[in-house]
Amino acid sequence: MWQYIFWVILFVLALVVEGLTMQLVSIWFAVGSAAALIVSFFTDSFIIQATVFVLVSLVLFLATRPLVRKLNRSPRVHTNADSVIGMEGIVKEDINTLAGTGRVYVNGLYWAAKADQIIPAGDKIVVLSVQGVTLSVRPAEKAE
Fold first, then answer.
1. Average pLDDT over the chain, rounded to whole?
2. N or C: which end of the chain has fewer CB within 10 A?
3. Where are the domains of the chain?
């Protein structure tokens, strides 16, 4: 008799957690506990019930999680700032990521900049990416 109560409580808790998070974190456990509850009507073996719970939860998790992740992926919001990627600019303040310094002038605007190396003021750069209001840059290829 206690097994019925256990599976019902686990089912309700999983649903409450799912309702509070809205992130599909426990729906698999709710279905697994429902399956174990059904099995508990046919056998008193808690080991069999727990095995059904684990197997059903695991199979549902493995079968649906990739689909859920794909559907929940928020699309990247492109901004006008993305338009500077690939553009060349000029370093206005030495770029030293460790020291937290670096300013560049790209497409008519001044930007904070970071790079994998120190780039002195006056050098040309190419924009690799935009993270917030900071450009990730590399030195431009020097013409021979």
1. 88
2. C
3. 2-72, 80-139
Span 65-80, average pLDDT:
67
pLDDT recorded at residue 13:
94
Q: Take residue 72 and report the two structure tokens written for it.
A: 């929940």
- Angle (nearest 5°) at CA 130 between 127 and 134: 95
- Residue 70: exposed, middle, or buried by beta-carbon count in 10 A (0-12, 13-18, 19+)? exposed
pTM of the model: 0.49
SS3 114: strand
Token digits of residue 76:
């990247």
Please give the Cα distance from 66 to 64 (Å, whole number): 6
Distance of alpha carbon 137 from alpha carbon 113, whole angstroms: 7
